[in-house]
Design brief:
With about 400 residues, the protein is an alpha/beta fold. It is built from twelve helices and 17 strands. Strands 1, 2, 3, 4, 5, 6 and 7 form a seven-stranded mixed β-sheet that branches. Strands 9-8-10-11-12-16-17 form a seven-stranded mixed β-sheet, with helices on both faces. Strands 13-14-15 form a three-stranded antiparallel β-sheet. The longest helix has 18 residues. It is globular.
Length: about 400
């Protein structure tokens, strides 16, 4: 276990936060919880992928959380006169480790948990939060089932439905259109096929799939099959070392000339993996460097720079999680039900724009983006596309189980 007090950022960042803040609201009374009468720190547990396959995502999340905490507390790192002390636990992307870490924190009296880089982790921590009546704010985990999991579970990032709905907007009304999903024959791939079928199929699209062995090195037959089918939209869900070979084959077989090819825009280091296809792909995006320009985004950018990083895909999720934690603690530092009530229906400005927590199922309604990549020397830069209104990609209500 690593205990890290989250410290205030440098004076330049404090100036920006003080000048621009206001989103989280002014600190107020502690709703009778007695929290403001105590000088002891408020303990917050951060259980995330500090190591493991999603460690890069986890580090972005953690750095974003640090910047968001500074912003939301106006540089004081305190809520209602009590310092916020963050205890980090590494789940390494392993649900069992995450549950053990969360259980340990809850046993020590922690009332607020945040984190969950991986979807499998979030789905295991959510029931624990309900059983122990602690606030849980899931992070980058995109699995739809986090929404509506229980009254004590929230999310600070987007969910798969919002990704897929964004992809569908790239061909207008999908009713009567043909959509093909190119994915690996794996749990990850099948989950994406199921998501596209559920989201776009429900809107009238005919969805089919081309599933490829995860370890494949020859993609020509699959690319040819897609080109022959002439779908209106090709949704690509791919993860792995053979990504460049896959994209190159699609380009060489003329798939980009035959259909609209869409995939999710990942973190900056992955952009080179698209190879010569990079400038031909239409990207859906949850968040990217330059996606917005508001007070929260500027604070995130300043906070990332202070920590030696830069704005990227999952820095937003950490920042927003900190905003939510502070808003909940401003209502009460001890009464979890009061924290839940404070968050339900809350609308606020995050780095990507205006966000609203839907009270019926705790879905985080948020804008989404489209983008493309442009060649820039030896690398690529993101060219902004459209900003989609939160309601245009809002998932259906999922009542609490």
């Amino acid at each position: 276990m690593h205990r890290r007090p989250v410290l205030a950022l440098a004076s330049a960042v404090l100036t920006l936060a003080l000048a621009a803040c206001g989103t989280p609201g002014e600190p107020g009374a502690d709703a009778g919880s007695g929290g403001s009468a105590s000088s002891s720190p408020v303990e917050v547990g951060l259980v995330y992928s500090k190591s493991g396959p999603l460690a890069t995502y986890g580090e972005q999340y953690r750095q974003g959380f640090t910047a968001g905490l500074d912003f939301a507390t106006k540089g004081t790192n305190a809520v209602n006169g009590r310092q916020v002390e963050v205890t980090e636990q590494d789940d390494a992307g392993d649900p069992a480790k995450a549950v053990a870490a969360a259980t340990d924190l809850v046993g020590k009296g922690v009332k607020v948990l945040a984190g969950s880089t991986a979807s499998g982790v979030a789905l295991q921590v959510a029931p624990l939060a309900e059983d122990n009546k602690v606030l849980f704010i899931s992070g980058p985990a995109a699995v739809d089932a986090v929404t509506g999991a229980n009254e004590y579970t929230f999310r600070s990032g987007r969910q798969t439905y919002q990704d897929v709905a964004t992809a569908g907007t790239m061909i207008g009304d999908v009713k009567g259109k043909k959509v093909t999903v190119l994915a690996q024959d794996s749990a990850f791939g099948k989950a994406n096929v199921a998501a596209v079928t559920a989201v776009l199929g429900a809107k009238g699209a005919t969805v089919s799939a081309v599933e490829v062995p995860a370890a494949a090195t020859e993609f020509t037959p699959f690319a040819s099959k897609i080109k022959t089918a002439k779908p209106d939209l090709l949704f690509v869900a791919w993860a792995g070392a053979n990504a460049t070979q896959m994209w190159t084959s699609l380009s060489q077989q003329g798939v980009f000339d035959a259909t609209t090819v869409v995939t999710g825009l990942d973190i900056k280091p992955t952009h080179a993996l698209f190879g010569e296809s990079a400038t031909k792909i239409d990207f859906l995006s949850h968040f990217y460097d330059g996606a917005a320009d508001n007070a929260a985004y500027q604070a995130l950018a300043a906070g990332m720079k202070e920590q030696g990083g830069s704005v990227d895909l999952f820095t937003n999720d950490g920042f927003v999680a900190a905003q939510m934690v502070v808003h909940a603690l401003e209502k009460s530092t001890d009464d979890t039900n009061a924290m839940v009530t404070a968050l339900e229906g809350w609308s606020f400005e995050g780095p990507k724009g205006q966000l609203t927590i839907r009270p019926e199922d705790h879905a985080l309604l948020q804008p989404m983006f489209t983008a493309s990549l442009e060649k820039d020397g030896d690398g690529y830069t993101v060219k902004p596309g459209k900003t989609l209104d939160a309601q245009a990609v809002a998932p259906p209500v999922t009542p609490f189980k």
